[in-house]
Amino acid sequence: NAGVTQTPKFQVLKTGQSMTLQCAQDMNHNSMYWYRQDPGMGLRLIYYSASEGTTDKGEVPNGYNVSRLNKREFSLRLESAAPSQTSVYFCASRYTPGQGERNTQYFGPGTRLTVL
Amino acid sequence: GQQLNQSPQSMFIQEGEDVSMNCTSSSIFNTWLWYKQDPGEGPVLLIALYKAGELTSNGRLTAQFGITRKDSFLNISASIPSDVGIYFCAGRNEKLTFGTGTRLTIIP
After folding, report:
1. How confident is the model over B15-66, as pLDDT tens digits?
2. Theoretical Cys-Cys bridge with A42: which of A89, A109, B98, B102, CB 3.0 to 4.6 Å?
3. Which of B42, B88, B94 has its CB closest to that of A42?
4. Calpha distance B96→B27 (Å, rounded)
5. Taking Cα atoms as reference points, which of A50, A52, A67, A60 lies closest to residue A84?
6. Measured between alpha carbons, how far is B22 from B87 in angstroms, rounded to an integer?
7. A22, A72 in Cβ contact below 8 A?
8. DSSP code of A79?
């Protein structure tokens, strides 16, 4: 099992450029998440997908869109990047809620994005 | 959005010392989780707590789910160099809410 994988690891964009961050998991998890992490702060939820075919906004969704392409893949898109979106982005996945001990989130290694 | 109050923000300790950190919230959570993050990596789950009052150990780590369901603590005994990193608490109802992290540094 590779767990949760993310690409790319690093990216530099100019203001106004667009890009898509990719995430995939091979653990057959139903739920997937995108977070951003900024210095001195914990992770903040951008969007999540409770199951294939559904997506919902999290705490900080503005400037982002997501696609749950299939059960394995959940992508995050920046249509017009802004310097305020400079951050480290983490994807996570977990089993369906209510399955007791397996009800925990597993994180990918992160994508470090800089917007100039 | 809500964030948990995690303290201390940073700790500087010597190898072999015990460590204690905690999280408090104004809201009740159904689950408390503790993660560790190494530089350049994603958070890795250390301990998950599912019931108020639960005390759970994972090697040298011990965590407790507060009786009020509004707090949790993590203890690390006899710290070693690989304990260095940032520790995050997280509370969950429908979604996870993260603390701001405790950065642990071991000084020679």
Report:
1. 999 999 999 999 999 999 999 999 888 999 999 999 999 999 999 999 999 9
2. B98
3. B88
4. 13
5. A60
6. 10
7. no
8. S
